Amino acid sequence: MGVLMKTALIIVLIFFSTGYDHQSMAFFGFKSIKVYDIENGIAKIKWSTPNWQTKGAVYFGESPDNLDRYTGYSLYNYYHEMSLSGLQRNKTYYFKIVAIDRLENSEESFLQSFSTKNMEKEDLIKPRFEEQKILQVINNAVAVSWATNEEARAVIYYGDEENNLKKTTKVRSFQKEHELLIHRLKSGTRYYLKIVAEDRSGNKTNGRQFIFNTNDYKGDSPDLSILNVKPLSPDEELVFSRRITINFRTNLVAKSVIQYGTVPGRYKHKKTVSESRKLNHQITLTSLEPNTTYYYKITAQDSFNRKKKIASEMTFVTGHLKKKFSGGSLVKGSGYKVYVINGNEKFWIENADVFSGLGYKWEWIQQVESSVLNEYKEGKSIKSSKYHPNGTLIKYADSHAVYLLENKKKRPFSSAESFIKKGYSWNRIMIISKKEKYRTGEYL
Q: What is the value of pTM for the model shown?
């Protein structure tokens, strides 16, 4: 591509970014990565993604092949700062940043490293509890969860005397989030419980003291039940053409999975709903077919008794597409990506060179609500302009025949009336090179 053409494309992209309130068609890119203020077992790290708002995560560890520790946050911004905690003196740490935008596109930085050789002080800062919960109590057991601001292990002290917690149980793994089941409790008894967290440098912090009673359930604990499954009927807030959100509750804390498919009793897909122990469960299923009946089963596993409960088969029907586009339409939502529509699928054009090489014009792009664009299934991205995608109208310069590309074949229109009746526009016909060859299909 000539210099003038490249310059023109850059100008168009700048105009496109300004006029449509989005960033140019490019990856976000990392700028100004810096590790600083290494002391007290903590290193601060900052960077920016100046072309796009992202949320961030940092994976780090003592080996470049095993970044076994993680810290992250869920706020979208151009500028980012985090603290890596639990560091030891005279170590080399390796790290990689992962940035994720609102459309769930992700990009990784190169592997980098820093040293704590000159760290001024050892880690003397205690871990901090960010959450402590009694998840559920039954007649002979309790489920507890907690989270700390840095990776920590813990000792849990409990007993039926407030000032004499005789029994203990240990959690030896260093993590930020923990769950624990304590069994063999006496029914009809008041218990006291306290969590003590310890970070990798040996700093300890005491959690709050809990009081709970095991007299909430009389006799044996109840059987596991799956309750309040929604949606049970069409629901504009939960059911869409390409996705659905399913909610349900269990009477006992449980982990759960869902199996689903378009044939009764035959489930092509299986997904985890709740990896941690919960009473309230939710999952969003995506990449579904519009206006289609799906059959599904929920399986939950009781955390206390390790018994499974499989719900009866249920169904849901996805909605119709909110808006249909003719084949070959160019559309974009609130993000920077431009797609070609073909049928119920959308295909991302990866960069401006491919866009121009295919003969597209910027004024052909339709701005749509992201909620509409999200209803289309994500197809393979378009990385080359060597061949045009399905749904494109084409003709050769030395011929009057017009074709529609479908399944890598060119299908001729039987007449001008047929072309117009199907809703196509004459100004969207691409004149292609003879080098771009396709087999001929049936007449339209």
A: 0.56
